[in-house]
Request: fold
Amino acid sequence: MKKMIWVLLVGVCLACKPSQPDVSTAFVGVHRCASCHMEAFQEWQRTTHATSMQEATPQTVKGDFTKNNAYTFGGITSTMSLRDGRYFITTPGADGSQGTYEVLYTIGDRDTQWYITELPGGHLQILPVYFDVRRNTWYNPVEGIIASPSDQPLDPRDTSFWMHFGRNWSAQCFDCHASQIEVNYDPDAGTYDSRWVDLSINCETCHGPGQGHVAFWERALTDADAASAQDTSLVNLRMLSSEQSVELCAQCHATKRILKLGYRPGDNFYDFYEPVVLDFEGMWPDGRYRHLAYNYTALTLSPCYTEGGVTCLTCHPSHGPEGEKKTRADFDGICMQCHRDIEPWEHSRHEQHIACVDCHMPPVPEVRRVRVFDHRIASPVPANTVRFGIPNACGECHGDRTPEWAVEKTEAWWGKQDDYLLQTAAIALGRQGNPMAVSPLKDELFDLSNNPTRRASAALLLGRTRSAQAVPVLLNALKDPHPLIRAKAIEGLGLIGQARVVPALVPLLNDPIRLVRLALVPAVENLGIHYLRGQDYERYEAIFAEYEQATKEVWATDPYVHAFLGWAYVRRGNTELARRAFQRALRIWPGIEDAARGLAQIHNTEKNDR
Reply:
C-alpha cells in the first residue's frame, strides 16, 4: 500500500512543470515539492512568500479597478479599469501621451500591492500607482520621498517617473519576487528575455535545487539499495550555523548588491551579495531605518544575533503564515529564554506593562504604509534624538514629551549613554567626510568586540575622510579575517587615492571571496593599474575579466557599472569598447551624465585626430 502511494505521488510530481521550463533543470518547482510535502505546502500557501508575485487575476488583484479607480499625483492622473477579467491602468508615458497598459502581475498583497506591465523589449515595468490594502486607497510610491505633491508632471528623466530604469522589475525587484530567475538582458539591444521557475518565493529558494531529491526517491521506489541509502541532495538546514541561517533569509531580506546569481543554502554569502553598511543613507547613523530597507543589516548590529545566536527563525515561522505570528506577550517569552535574570516589570520601570518589543523593536513610522519594525533589537538612546534628530522608542509612546525629558529619564534609570552617542557621532562625521572622524572611526574598526557590519562601516567611512592618517589603519584592515571588512578597507583606500598602497593590495588578488576580488577593480582603476607588474598584472586582469562578466550578467541593467567600464576602457586605449559601454549606459538611462561625457570625449578626440 505504501509503495502504491509513493508511485501516485511521484506520478503527480512528474506531471507538474515549472512555469518557465527553459530555466535550469536543477530546479523542479513548488508543485513538485507539494506532491509529496502537502502539509508544508499548505502552510506555505498562506505565507507572503507564496504571494510575493502573482499573475493578475480576480483572485489576486486587491486594488479597486472599478469604483475608487483614479488617482492623481505629481500632476499625473492614472485611471484603473477592469475589462473582461483583465486589468488595465491608463497613464501618461515617457512622451506625455496617454497610454493604456495591461496589468500582468502583482507584487504583494498584505500591506500594499504593486502592478506590473510589459513594455516592448520584454521590459517588466512597475506601474505608477500602488494600492494600500489596509487603507483601501491608491497612492504613488514616491509620496513621502518628494516633499509634497506638485501640479507639475514628473519629468520622464526623473528617477521617480514610472518608466525610469529604476522602476524596472527585471533590474530592481527580480531576485526577491520570483524564484530561480534568469533576467537575460541584452545590453546592446536593450531587451529582456526573463524566465523563472515560480512566481513566488518557492521551496527551493530555501532548500536548494530539488532535481536530485526527486531523482533519489524515484530510484528508491524500485531499487532496494537506493532505498537504504541516505538522500544528501538537499542541504540539511538544521546543520546551518546561526550566521548561515540568517544569510539564507538575507538573500531576499537584505538591502544589498547582487554579485552573482545561484546562491544555495550554506554558500558563502559574500560570494553572492554585498550588503549595505552604515554609509547607506536609508539608515540613520545609528543603524535605525530612515526609509524602507530590509532587516539583515540592522539585525547584524544586534548583540542578540552576534552574541546570542538569535536568527530569523527564532521569531518567524519557517512555513507558517506571518498573519498568525506571535503576540507581544509571546515575544516577551522569546526574549526571556536568554534574559532569565530580568524581571520585565522591574526592568521596564513603567507603571503599566509594556512588551520588550515596544522599547527594543519599535515600529518605524518613517516607513509609510508598510509595517516595519526596528531589527537592531537595541536600547532606546534619546541622546541621539537630541544630537542627531534620530527618532527613538520613547518618543513613539510619549509624543507629548521632549527628547530632553527622555534623556533625563533614561540617564536616571540606566546612567549615561555616552558610548552609544560616540558610536553614532563617528558614523555621522564619517558620512560627511569630516577628518575629525578618523580617530573615532579608527577606534570602531580596531575594536574587535564590535560586530563586522559596524567595523566594515568604519573602514569605508575612513576612506570618505580622504585623510592620509586613515591609510595605515586601512592597510591593517586588509588582513582582517572577515571578507566584508577587507572589501570595505579596499574601497576606503580607493577613495583616498594614494597610489603607493597598490603593492599592499597584491595579496588580495588571490582572495577566495568574490566580494573582495571585485572590490579591487574600482580601487585599482582609481589608483592606477600601471603600478602592477608581471604576474600581479595578469592576476588583476583576470579579476577585471570577472568584473566584466558580472556586467554582462547580474549587473547588465546597471548604467553606472557600464559607465565605469567605459572610462576603464578609455584608460586602456580601447575606444570601441569604451563607446559601446557608454552607449549601453545611456540606453538604460539617457540621463547618466558620466556616460554622455565619455561619448563626447571620444567624439572630440576622434574629430581632432582627423
Q: What stands out?
A: Residues 242-379 form one domain. Residues 1-24 have pLDDT under 50 and may be disordered. Residues 534-552 form the longest helix (19 residues).
